[in-house]
What we know:
Layout: H1 5-9, H2 18-27, H3 34-44, E1 50-54, E2 57-61, E3 65-69, H4 70-77, H5 81-93, E4 97-103, E5 106-111, H6 114-117, H7 122-147, H8 154-163, H9 166-174, H10 176-182, H11 192-197
Antiparallel strand pairs: 1-2, 3-5, 4-5
Amino acid sequence: MKLNTMQVFEHGYIVLPKVALKAHLASKRRIPGDLEVILILLMHVNYSDTVYDIHHKEVCCHRGEAVYNFTQWARFFGWTRPRTVRFFTRMRKEGIIRLISEQQSILHICVVDYDIWTGQNRLAREQKQTLYEQEFLEFWEKYHNTLHVKRRNIGRAQSEWRKLSDEDRRLAIQHIEDFYYSVEDVRFIPQASTYLADKAFLNDFGY
Length: 207
């Protein structure tokens, strides 16, 4: 089934409570089809930001994202694992989901336009996205102006920025100067993406 988020909703949509939807799907005895599985997918992604411990590493899973492996998704769907893998491959190609990372069989995915799927105000989503972009640019400029390093790998830096919680993003900007004064040899100042990936802004800056 070929899907496009905007085409799906161009004729409007209805809002269903998750409890009622879950009860309906549980009452069905046949194997779910693609549309039902998409609804199951939407039921299992995060409604708000949550931090998980994945293989002893903290992973921030934002609203509209999920971290499960293919076996868990197959169990949610009532499908075989191979069919589930093919489904996710197709959903990625059609732009319904975006893969954030895949490590040790764990998929960290994002449902594209999640707020539209859940009936949230599109304007509010766009305003939040604008704020997110402004915060990243604030970090990007302050980091390079303060640490005097070349601007490199902005794409990777944006990817690492997306993984952070709102509080971590605030600290990442706030502690740039503290980090600069803690570096013993300025020849080894890391790129912005490494600073974010290592969460160097959480270092102990007690000089």
